[in-house]
Amino acid sequence: MTLENGLSLKDEVQRMRAEVATQGERVRKLKKDGAVKAAIDTEVSTLSDLKAKLQQKEKQLEESTPLYTRCREPLENLVKRRLFVIPGFEIYGGVAGLFDFGPPGCALKAEVEALWRRHFVLHEDMLEVSGTCLTPEVVLKTSGHVDRFTDLMVKDTVTGECYRADKILEEQIEAKQKAGLPPDEHDRLEKLKVQADALSSEEMHQAFLDLGIKSPDGNGFSTPFPFNLMFKTSIGPKGDLVGYLRPETAQGIFVNFRRLLEFNGGKMPFAAAQLGLGFRNEIAPRSGLLRVREFQMGEIEHFVHPDHKEHPKFGAVKDMKLPLFPRDRQLGDGKVVMDMTLEHAVQTKVINNETLAYFLARTYLFLTKCGIQHVGMRFRQHLETEMAHYACDCWDCEIETSYGWVECVGHADRSAYDLSHHTKASKVDLVAQHKFDAPRDIEYVKFTPNRPKLGQAFKQDQAAVIEALEEKPDQERLHIQQQLDASGTYELKLCTGQSFTITKEMAKFEKAVKRVAVEAYVPAVIEPSFGIGRIIYCILEHTFRSRGIQDQEERCFLSLPPVIAPIKCSVLPISANTQFDDLINQLKEQLTYHGVSSQVDSTSASIGRRYARTDELGIPFGITVDFQSVKDSTVTLRERDSMKQIRVPAIEIPELVHNMVAGRTTWDKARDKYPEFIAQEA
Amino acid sequence: MTLENGLSLKDEVQRMRAEVATQGERVRKLKKDGAVKAAIDTEVSTLSDLKAKLQQKEKQLEESTPLYTRCREPLENLVKRRLFVIPGFEIYGGVAGLFDFGPPGCALKAEVEALWRRHFVLHEDMLEVSGTCLTPEVVLKTSGHVDRFTDLMVKDTVTGECYRADKILEEQIEAKQKAGLPPDEHDRLEKLKVQADALSSEEMHQAFLDLGIKSPDGNGFSTPFPFNLMFKTSIGPKGDLVGYLRPETAQGIFVNFRRLLEFNGGKMPFAAAQLGLGFRNEIAPRSGLLRVREFQMGEIEHFVHPDHKEHPKFGAVKDMKLPLFPRDRQLGDGKVVMDMTLEHAVQTKVINNETLAYFLARTYLFLTKCGIQHVGMRFRQHLETEMAHYACDCWDCEIETSYGWVECVGHADRSAYDLSHHTKASKVDLVAQHKFDAPRDIEYVKFTPNRPKLGQAFKQDQAAVIEALEEKPDQERLHIQQQLDASGTYELKLCTGQSFTITKEMAKFEKAVKRVAVEAYVPAVIEPSFGIGRIIYCILEHTFRSRGIQDQEERCFLSLPPVIAPIKCSVLPISANTQFDDLINQLKEQLTYHGVSSQVDSTSASIGRRYARTDELGIPFGITVDFQSVKDSTVTLRERDSMKQIRVPAIEIPELVHNMVAGRTTWDKARDKYPEFIAQEA
Hints:
5-stranded mixed beta sheet; homodimer; alpha+beta; 9-stranded mixed beta sheet; Helix Hairpins; BirA Bifunctional Protein, domain 2; 39% helix; Herpes Virus-1
């Protein structure tokens, strides 16, 4: 939704709120300065006008936004009532951040996973693996999670209640912005908000002081401190082997890299994939299904030569336009998501490489198949400050919901971080090899450290500095030399956060030649990582529809795409009469034979009420068996979204539904073939 | 394998070993007593004869046993080489009891789970749910796991190494038996061995003392003590909410019972099912995949009225003969598994009720579909002493492997244990209701406690005794009264292990009548519980086959049923020539369209070697594209087990393979339809 002046309606409302705030300030100042009444009255009247216009615009904004941004209450009602989701351990008062999937939720999850498997694993011939959740400490120490997988926490100094510092900060800023702020202050806090989850303890502490933030109970807060989000346990009877529940499934792939490469006949590039649970001991889980402590993930690790990140199938997606939200647009004024072709994005280096871009496209297609709307999807590049410790570029696919934009799929170029670190820690080489037909001379960039100078400058850090420089790939080595030549110095940043100034005298990088038969290299990893549970919640919001009020009740339904619908077809006899039993049993059996899940509802509720039930479950097709059916073996077939019905010979139904679910034919084609059936649903 | 004298070959070997031991004893005694040489020589000669016969019989036994009992080494070799399984965190030296599934293992697991879902969940319209692994302590305290989910552990007093006491005891007994024991002693120890996992700490301690058991390092052992097998962790940031990783998925269903019943429209009986992970912190995991610390389970909780355990579909399975191994045969001499019809088993109360029997049949059919052989399957009833704390009857489906008989599926009648305890602990009624059309007078058995007498006799235990008596169902109440009338007393056993003698004066049970509109009752639960990982290992052993030695290499393969094979079809060009590419791509695409997973192998290895590879992966069908194919668009289709090939138009292949995988047609029918193709594989 973009207005003529180029501002989105949302931004326009934001601007008007600031205007109201400034005007309010002006009135207060006049009053304080004891201005004449007439002058004050004029300004007050202007303020009233502005407020009225704002109110109108706010209403317009609400009505113009997609349904999913304002469906939370009726949707959560439906989701709980129809048992898509059950709060975990409800009878014991529940545990925050733990949810169970009831029958339709469980089936929906299974269908989304099956689609994920077909769309990614089978389509790309990926190697699917399944590792354990229990992970020994050494693995997660190596990956950096033991030291850095933390959120900043603050404690209410009186009640001891724990909070996530960044969430508290975000909320406080939003509250201040909503109450109205001068434009400068608004923008300053907006920038702070966007970077909230990347602040250091000290920066966070300063922000809390600056804004005078109090706890929800009005008490003071402790200084923010890092809290590790992994669940810790002990493996074995002796208590000496510390283990964690994996915070991501990726490490289980990295540690098996050598075996997987071997299984793949040594061929590169290749991808491995894993569907499985991840665990994060969230400090204060809220936002329903969006921030939970145990969640299903789907992760892909695409291993590739660090200098060859082209993708053979990029041509098939290069013309696709994706809603991109690059880094440099996020902190500026005119935050705008742009639809951009992937070819252009890669050419202009907005996206780092073809492989990363290829996966963004595949993710977009997957989510579209799941029913996520284009308007509520964007690919947001990570800010430098927020990038995970391992990543060299990262794009989140965010989906808009009633909770705002939610990260659902991360696409990180993790470079060689993980494999190099596991190689070092395990002493097992995790490398791929490229064998030449005959030994050949290859160019490389030789690094010659000047150890005395380095030692003098960096003392005990010398070894770390040399190691970091040794790890730089050829291209970057050349780049460093260029910088050294140009400015005399180069700033080396370590993953520990330390920074070192390298001077021209300390190191030399120059092109050289060596004779080799085999090139061994540590592959880079490009990782699309899916939060299946979050995606499911977004699917529910994006497919939520209302038919309006009927009989004093809002008739809502889920417009789930047939391919992921938990149940594909309902079978409803027009009345609870045993004469329908044979036909129903035959239908059910034939549907099962064709792999179509179905649900018979022969309760005595009216047919309309029964359809309302199946609509709430998102069942796309419904068969009604009526008295005519017994005579001529035809039944009606109803499509959920249009509520249109056609009359079809019972024997043809199972294959027809199967083909519509599999996407081999469409409802429109079926309507062309079979006569329409007119009936009232009430 | 049964000999004419009614003894199985195995028992015969056992008997002969005892004979050799007795004869050896006789020789030693003669020597010790200084008997004349001639007498000694005679007995020594008899001993030699006996030993020779034993050796011969032992060889016969080995050769007559199914392949799976002696395939461990080549199978484990295949399983690791083909990456069905990878030891967890191998590059870090591994963690005992943790395994990952590599690509074929992961696909096999997915197929077994999909079959489980179709065979149980869809076939019986069960409500599938998916709960969390993280479980708050209160739930597992209520279920009894916090207090009683333990194994007895012993520690080497010198090295501190930990062992499972029952496994050590079993091994020591087996070693002694193998070395030869007099029949009486053999039988006494056999009984001890069978009950090893049900001994109390004191009994175990006594057994260790009696047998003089030392640790494998020759040191003493600590006294056995219970070790809780749950992984403990802490949920949330404060550290005050203790949680465990669930040891079974069942509790996640019980706590949701009320919601599930509501979802089911209040209708009873019904079943809920769950596929998910379970965790047990095994003391000393060995036996490869059979005893692991994290494992996939499939559990079904069938809720039923405690007095109506008939099953509507029992008629469909009543004539099936299952290999039953009831309790009373396990401790006696002639341990024999009997094939018995389920109707007979239920009528004679060998199996407690129809529902339990029905599930045994469904399990048998499921495992048969998975390729488990009848000869290596038995249903063993739990001994009274080994029954889980909650169970009132329990049958394990055990599968024979190279490790012996392995429990793979438990079938427990958990009675109302779980629902009653969760009701008490959560104060939420977990009951089902039966509404009468009109209020009616119903007979029941009224319990009148004599509180003064009970108080006098049991003091502070009075309340527990009354509660226990109140919980008895009507039928048992009548039974108690009969016993009181007959003998004057009744022995009341509590689940705590305490026992109380109730006398005639203390309690009265009599038939009475009350007027009710609704009958509320706590349902009983019948639970089939599947260890998916164990079943997968058993499938691998049971489908392992050898074609004998070819080119100095044993050609082994997995005869996996097509329905669960990880990949359904291979596509092999006769040579690495680009002219085959089009046809191969078309085949691959059409196979995918028909939902058939496939693998193209266009490496330069010989066709025979490539088939050997696909055989090791258990791929049931193989398509070969040759030069003729390019001319007439026909290809050959090979079946793995028979290695026979037929010539089929390429366009008909995908549907043909799909139908064979789905069980809609067979290889034999395909052979009738298409001409045979004769070719050498080498």
